[in-house]
Amino acid sequence: MSLLVVGSIAYDSVKTPFGKKDEVLGGSALYCGLAASFFVPVNLVSVVGEDFSKRYLNFLRKRNIDTEGLQIKKGKTFRWKAEYSHNLNNRRTLATHLNVLRDFKPELPKNYKDSKYIFLANLDPYMQQMVLDKLSNPKLVACDTMSLWIETKRDSLMKLLKRVEIFIINESEARELTAEPNLIKAGHKICNLGPKMVILKKGENGALLLSKSFKFLSVAYPLEAVYDPTGSGDVFAGGFMGYLAKQNKLTKSCFKKALIYGTILASFNVESFSIERLKRLNRKDIDKRYKELRRLTHF
Ligand code: AMP
């Protein structure tokens, strides 16, 4: 099985207490697609400008990521700038220049239309729905969002939530969306909005999966050196959905393992800026850390 990933590709400028990088490769679809490609072939739907480096396109293709659905439009690639607080838990967005992403109309190449596993990475919820309209018979659709859309496109986001099985969201965004301070109650409220399952990402406190029939919790992998959390939510989702697509089974056991693989992929991503750590990663490293997390939490 392959995974269809829709979202942004960006040039990010990021400052953390441990350094600063300008105009490095980023974007929700880029991070997610790269993480998922450790498990399955990825079909990427996104848009970049004419300034996007051919070197990066070649890199994606070498990584089992199909770029037929990647539009190259006149204009500049999406740019995003952010700064993190000392403990890396808070982030301030300093600039969002949508550029070619502003009028993005996702198109699906013919062979993407019968995709079974779909991840709608962070993007305007209207655009995320445009993709759903073009699919013939999806088996599992998951999506992400961010505060910006909760605040500016709430109605559209609510419509989207009625059409997805899994919603992957940060704890602060879950509280904002539901106006509910208790995270478990917020999760249940989200399940009443449409999704059968919600995954609440809690940064260094792990992730919690909630559905009407079961709950499952993962701690974060303990790390001494964290440099840049950018994209970890997307990488988590890529690991989670990539593993599920590979198994092509939607059992409780698969969901639990997928949550752990998402956690492990995200732990590698935060070890460097941009996709530097993911570039050097291989499946052996992933499975080694997966076993280590099991050893650390089993009692
Ligand atoms: P995360 O740290 O998981 O929230 O993801 C950060 C990534 O999301 C960065 O690489 C950004 O380029 C991308 N991003 C930030 N704002 C937006 C937006 N409004 N739409 C789509 N992608 C975005």
Task: Considering the chains and any ligands shown, give keywords for the structure.
single chain, 299 residues, alpha/beta, UDP-N-acetylmuramoyl-L-alanine:D-glutamate ligase, 10-stranded mixed beta sheet, 4-stranded mixed beta sheet, 11 helices, 14 strands, 25% strand, binds adenosine monophosphate
Task: Characterise the protein shown here.
- With 299 residues, the protein is α/β, with parallel strands linked by helices.
- The protein has one domain (3-297): Ribokinase (UDP-N-acetylmuramoyl-L-alanine:D-glutamate ligase, 3-Layer(aba) Sandwich), CATH 3.40.1190.
- Helix content is 37%, strand content 25%.
- Strands 1, 4, 5, 6, 9, 10, 11, 12, 13 and 14 form a ten-stranded mixed β-sheet that branches. A four-stranded mixed β-sheet has the order 3-2-7-8.
- A hairpin with a 3-residue loop joins β13 (207-211) and β14.
- α1 (28-36) packs parallel to α8 (232-247) and α8 runs antiparallel to α9.
- The radius of gyration is 18 Å and the shape is globular.
- It starts with a strand and ends with a helix.
- The mean pLDDT is 96.
- The site of adenosine monophosphate (AMP) has 16 residues, from β2 and α8.
Quick take:
With 299 residues, this protein is an alpha/beta fold. It is 37% helix and 25% strand.
